[in-house]
Amino acid sequence: MMNKFTAIAAIAIAVGACRGNPKASAPADTRPAAGVAHVSLSPLGAERNPVRGRGPFGEREYLRRLRCSDGTAPTFERGGSVGEGGDEHILDVYSVLCPGAGRATSVYMDMYHDDVRERRPIPGFTVLAELPARTALGCPPQAGPSPDSSARYVFNYLEVETPAHMLNRPAAPIKAGFEDYVSVGFVVDTLGRVEPGSLQMGEFDNSRAQAAAERIVLALRFTPAEHHAGCRVRQGTGVDLEFQ
Length: 244
Fold this sequence. Notes:
25% strand, 4-stranded mixed beta sheet, alpha+beta, 13 strands, 4 helices, TolA/TonB C-terminal domain
C-alpha cells in the first residue's frame, strides 16, 4: 500500500513513524491548524474539507502522524490528483489503511498552504503532535529498528533541529519557452546534494517540463539538515517550479 516516495523511508516503519509506537491512549491534538482560520461543515479529510499542508512532504508528514484506533500507524498510498477544492487548488487523494481494516479511508489533501500544519485528526483516527523521530537519540538518531535502518531514514523538516537550506534557489518563473507548474519532492543527503533516485514529481502539462525539472532539481545544493547540533541527516523536502 506504499507509494514510491514513502518506500524511501520504509526501512524505518512503513509511514515514517519508526521509533517505538506511541501508546494507543495517546491523546489527539485537537487545536485548530496553525496560521489560518477555516470553517467547514464537512468532516476533515473530505473533498469539501481537505487536510491542508505544506507541499508533498507536508501531506506525508500529516499522514505519518496519524494513528489508528488501536494506536498503530496506518499505511497510505497516493491515488493521484483530483479536481479543485474550495480554495481553487488541485487536491490530492490518499488511501489510508489500518492493519486488519476491511477497507481503506480516502483522505483528500490540499498541499498549497505554506503556513499550515494540521493538528486535528480525521474521523476514526488520532494524530500525534510530533513525529517520534524528532526526539530520537544518537547520531545517526535511532529512528529505525536498527543502526543501519536509522542511517537510511529520511527525516522531514519537522523532525530536525536545523532543516536543509537551499543555496541556489531556481528563478521564479523559469524562462523555458513553455508554460507549466509542478511541485517536486526529493531527498537531500548529508552532503547537501539531491539523491537522484528520490525525485517525485506531479503531473506535467508539457512533455519537455519533466526533463527540465529533473535537470534543475539535481543541480540544487543545500546546507545539510541537522537532527541536532553536529548530526547531519538525510532530509526530504521539495521545490515548486514554474516554467514560462
